[in-house]
Amino acid sequence: xxxxxxxxxxxxxxxxxxxxxxDKVKGVTVYNHMILPTIFKDAEEDCRHLKSEVQVWDVSVxxxxxxxxKDAEKLLGILTPRCVKNMNxxxxxxxxxxxxxxxxxxDPVVLRIDEDRYxxxxxxxxxxxxxxxxxxxxxxxxxxxxxSVAPLAIQGPKSRILMKRIFGNEMDYFSYFxxxxxxxxxxxxxxxxxxxxxxxxxxxYVEGTEYAHDLWEELFSNGKDLNIRPGCPNQIERIExxxxxxxxxxxxxxxxxxxxxxxxxxxxxxxxxxxFEALENIAKQGPSKVLRYFDIKGERVPFCxxxxxxxxxxxxxxxxxxxxxxxxxxxxxxxIVEFDxxxxxxxxxVLIDNKLRxxxxxxxxxxxxxxxxx
Length: 374
Ligand code: THG
What we know:
Blueprint: H1 18-21, E1 27-31, E2 34-39, H2 43-52, E3 55-58, E4 64-68, H3 72-79, E5 93-94, E6 97-98, E7 104-106, E8 109-114, E9 117-121, H4 127-137, E10 143-145, E11 149-155, H5 159-167, E12 179-184, E13 187-192, E14 201-207, H6 212-222, E15 229-231, H7 235-240, H8 276-285, E16 289-296, E17 308-312, E18 314-325, E19 330-338, E20 347-352, E21 355-362
Residues 62, 94, 107-109, 121-123, 151, 177, 194-196, 203, 243-244 line the site of (6S)-5,6,7,8-tetrahydrofolate.
């Protein structure tokens, strides 16, 4: 499939920013039935730039599933094992969603936009249908819709300097995952200190199309001396930083405990969630396999479009994401491995293109910390 043309259809949705980026992108993928840029110059150059400057990402594919109405909090408590009671409207929550067997449905960020109004900022699976189905079956007093919201991520060490030029000194007082309402002309925007990189940054939830291009132009005209560029989530940076990709690093077959999201399952505080009994059982027994990071030796690994089996005489797991990192001068990976082999430093073999390579387990990602702003 590589190098082939993606035939545009109505089902592959463009974004409010497609016209701004389509002349500059070298690669795109489809995520939530919508176009997501993947490469601008090349993955390595995009990564270097992200780590030293500021980028604006069209992450419209991070669709919002809006729950609004009297039973909104109740429904949210059914949808995630995270405790969402009296949720702080000034804080985003990373909140795994699971099915009745405890299998991952999605790993979204949740925002409380108003008293009875929440946005579930989803990864790539059809959450709108899942949530609508549950609301309908339980006859809850809510509306479930996909509003016209297109997140723009401003990422990189210079992102705060840029945001201050547009939104003022308030940007100095944003902690990680804070959510605020900021003014842009006559508009009120939801802005959070989040984003799918660990280089520092913000996400602006652009509503409708009225001011989308003005905001884009404002960012780029204020960012000239900061070497601003359009960008996109970068595979090298996100694997180094241990940020998980739903559909790649985990699927509906994995429990949150298997994919390192056990700490977001507050089953002692929320017994109303779908999958509660399953999660209680898995928590009691402990998962039989767990997510780990990998240092894969040898030459640069090829593109990992599926997964690579992991062996210790027999098969003991799978690497689900892997790429060469020039910062760490090795191949970095994410995968799921049987518990007995998951200890820091354990040497295993990974099968890539019919050749076994040595790989070492890491319990922490290569870049374990959020990088400070410049
Ligand atoms: N931002 C928003 N929506 C999103 C994403 C995002 N939707 C799709 C996808 N990304 C959802 N998945 C993730 C995965 C990881 C994180 C956020 C969304 C993340 N994790 C941090 C980590 O793992 O270190 C922090 C988690 C925490 O400690 O709370 O940021 O990026 N709007």
